[in-house]
Write a structure and sequence with these properties.
Length: about 350
């Protein structure tokens, strides 16, 4: 079996004997068409889509005008092409988009963002490929503010799962109108879809770069998670007086000892006990066994192994009264153990029901 490449198989075995170049009369466009046709016949797979549109059109037109090439001409064209490839020492990425890809991580994000904006969206390839990778949270407000016709095109270009997720986050009336508009998109031209993609990608590029990877709610929630309960309660009261909506969002982001029954699946509690020293768990449950946290302590004891629960209850009775400071430190150890399990993907916290919260606020 001959394992040589298509180009190597066509090369004459001996090029030492001088003979007229049968391809001398051909233009570069004709030679390019011959090489492409030869490689396609040999089953080669190469991305012609990376060529500029104008060159793709010229190549297609040129191939359409040609009919027959003899073997000697084909051999000379391919030999010349192979010689050009061998003489090539270095290639550079095409356009600013390719250059930025090559320099990714080696130039500052600020410089990269500025170059992207200056070069324009088109420099970065198919705008729909960029849009498909954008977070749903960024797409929802854009889709909501667009006309139903444009929104229908956007959802039609996204994957079914992402489109369904966006649709589920829109107001019911808007979602219904967009869904109907999807049925009217059969006559939309590729040019119109392309223009919509460019417009949408431009909007996404114009959104300013942010200094933080997480939202303000997530950052405040994370800080208060590790704050003493007195500090946490005082801050939340202040937030409620200043911005009730923000305060409610922060409350949902916080996960404290009293949230365990509502946020932790009972079947996951035995995993928590393996992450916490039993002495710390005994101290935490003893401190929580009276007052508002008593139901939390009982919830934990009821959902761990019966043998461990009995052992802990005995130690709790022997421990007696626990200082508030020691009890809070022990509860923090329990919470940190649960957070570690969540971060490692071993368990998942239950998400609060927004509808129930909204009803409770009313």
């Amino acid at each position: 079996m001959n394992n040589a490449t298509p180009l190597a198989r066509l090369m004459p075995p001996d090029r030492s004997t001088a003979r007229p170049n049968a391809a001398a009369h051909l233009s570069r466009k004709q030679k390019a068409a011959i090489v492409v046709r030869f490689l396609l016949n040999e089953g080669a797979d190469f991305p012609l889509t990376e060529l500029p549109d104008a060159l793709q059109a010229e190549l297609t037109t040129q191939m359409g005008t040609m009919r027959y090439v003899d073997r000697a001409t084909l051999a000379d064209v391919v030999a010349e092409f192979a010689s050009d490839l061998e003489a090539m020492g270095l290639t550079f990425p095409r356009g600013v988009a390719g250059a930025l890809t090559a320099l990714d991580g080696r130039i500052s994000p600020q410089t990269a963002a500025r170059l992207k904006k200056e070069a324009g969206v088109r420099q970065f390839g198919d705008p729909w490929e960029q849009i498909k990778g954008v977070d749903i949270a960024r797409l929802v407000p854009i889709v909501e503010n667009e006309s139903v016709e444009v929104a229908a095109v956007i959802l039609s270009k996204l994957s079914v799962t992402r489109a369904a997720e966006i649709l589920g986050k829109l107001p019911g009336a808007k979602a219904r109108r967009i869904t109907y508009a999807v049925s009217q998109t059969s006559a939309v031209t590729p040019d119109a879809v392309d223009r919509i993609g460019l417009s949408l990608a431009s909007q996404l590029h114009e959104q300013p770069e942010t200094a933080f990877d997480t939202t303000p709610v997530e950052r405040v929630g994370a800080i208060l998670n590790y704050s003493p309960s007195i500090t946490r309660d005082d801050v939340l009261v202040g937030l409620e007086e200043t911005d009730l909506v923000f305060a409610n969002l922060v409350r949902k982001a916080i996960f404290t000892f009293k949230d365990i029954p509502d946020r932790v699946d009972p079947v996951d509690l035995p995993k928590m006990t393996r992450e916490v020293e039993q002495s710390a768990l005994v101290t935490a449950l003893t401190s929580a066994s009276s007052g508002d946290l008593a139901p939390v302590a009982e919830f934990i004891l009821e959902n761990i192994s019966k043998r461990m629960a009995e052992s802990i209850r005995e130690e709790m009775s022997e421990l007696g009264k626990v200082k508030a400071k020691d009890g809070e430190a022990a509860m923090t150890e329990v919470i940190n153990a649960i957070r570690t399990l969540v971060a490692n993907g071993e368990i998942a916290l239950i998400i609060p029901d927004d509808d129930e919260d909204d009803e409770g606020d009313g």
